[in-house]
Amino acid sequence: MAFVGGALGVGASTALAATAAYASGAAFAGTLVGGFVVRTVVAIGLSALAAKLAPSPAAANASPIERMVNFAQPVSYAEWVYGRTRKGGPIGFTGFANDKRWYVPILAAHPIKGVVQHRLDERIVSLTDAVDTNASNISENPIAGYGRVDVFTGDPGQAVHAGLDAAFAEITSEFDFEGLAGAVIWAARPPNESYTQVFPGGRQWQYSPVLDGKKDLYDPRDGQYKFSSNAALVFADWCVNVMGREVDWDEIADEADACDLVEPDAAGIPRKRWELNGTLSDEQDYETHRAQLATACDAFVYDRTDGKVGFTVGRWLEPELTLGPDDFLSFELTEGQYGADAPDEVAALYTEPDNGWRETPSGAWVARIAAKPVTDQPQIFMVTNHFQAARLNKRLARSKHAQYQLRGTIGMKGYEILGGRSGGRAHRFVRFVHPELGLDLYLEVGEMARESLGLFSLSANTVQPDDFAFTAAEEPARPTYEAVEGQTGVPVPSGFHVATAGNGAATFEWDAQSPAYLQDIRYRRLSFLPLWTQSAVGSEQTTLNVSDLVSGEDYEVQIRNRSNGLGVSDWSASETFTA
């Protein structure tokens, strides 16, 4: 196992402490107040975090499509997968034996819940229950018979893959990939006349499945360790298990409840307010981790006066602290937009499942009408639904077009902003009253830094409760991304229905189709989990059993035909059922 740990930058006993992100983050912890939010910065909000998410060619903001590959190099960086996402990974082993190319992509540097959808290159494939590791378990033509995929999730007791062990003399029981998630894959060479159909990329497939990641997130509300995309639980796990810091679990419970509030989007699909789905790499620096996580849920991050990391996810909270001119050693209050280049509209780049889990521009939130609008496109790749991206667009636009910006130097009152008198919870919003100027404003802290003992610099901008309100009626039109199908003439399957359902399982049936067609079936839970799970069915099959459903929950399911030439029919009308 040591060779794998070394290649991924993860050691058996120092999996996190040895990472670059942890090392850089740990250096922040040595001061009386401050340490987690970069050097002497002790609180940071959306307006300051957004600058880190500008489009950039740097690896720090690696886009989703850049992760959908399998690459081989001497040392690869550890990757943490949160929520549901699509990705590939580095090659942990590759070799040629028995006329097969064997390779082992590593999907995550930790155990995962499992793979939701298998993808070889851009093909969605389903696996059979074939046990023999030398037999193909891929059901789709034309690649059926030419490959096998065996996923390992990194659970305790994981053993070396039997087929890999038998094929290579140098493989021993130590090659168990303990604590890592990935897949053992082999690809066999087809006849020359079908080579490009089986391997359209000219080589073995890139394995980039859709997977549910880390499954040991602690939820203080029920005391359980679980898989979750809840933004508060994800952020807390990153703080504790990646960065090695402490959090206040009572605070996490409150923030997790705020994240779980459900609202319908413009399509009527119920959406939880704040979810985080995506990948963090040790190749990225600490600031990029924090910016990707915090911006995607509009979080305010701060160093608590008790030494723990605190954060508040995006929502309006009535200010409980009032500041006036006498609280500042000096301050400057400016009126007008946030800089001469404040954008006319904001259209974030987020990860869209319906676009193959690629980066996708959202519909734009228009702050002001312009003949040639300036568009800001922050990269929020941990967001995987348009409704959440649109909510953030509004917040970013409003913050950059705030009526007033305040910059100043403040004394001991800074400790009070950090929660010195309120149980360690900071004040994200404050009221600013200036009698001489006749001002009574709501301010949101953008950034606060400790300059010396008892002395802080503060930047903030005005905010209104309406900045945080967002409904389906405000969601801009969502871009659509569908395959160009042309006039394929492929018919929709007939006779599709749910034969049986219950106890967390269901059986789907349909009429026999032409042998020229395969079937794709997709289903989704109607509450809380709007993402489709899709399965490909082999030729001449007329039933499909699924058993990974949540008992008692309502689902919808659809079917379509697909030809070997990749022409597809429309999706059928939805059938609904209770698992």
TrEMBL record:
Annotated keywords: Signal
Domain Fibronectin type-III: 492-579
Keyword field contains Zinc: no
SMART domains, A to Z: FN3
InterPro entries according to UniProt: FN3_dom, FN3_sf, Ig-like_fold
Signal peptide positions (record): 1-17
Stated name of the protein: Fibronectin type-III domain-containing protein
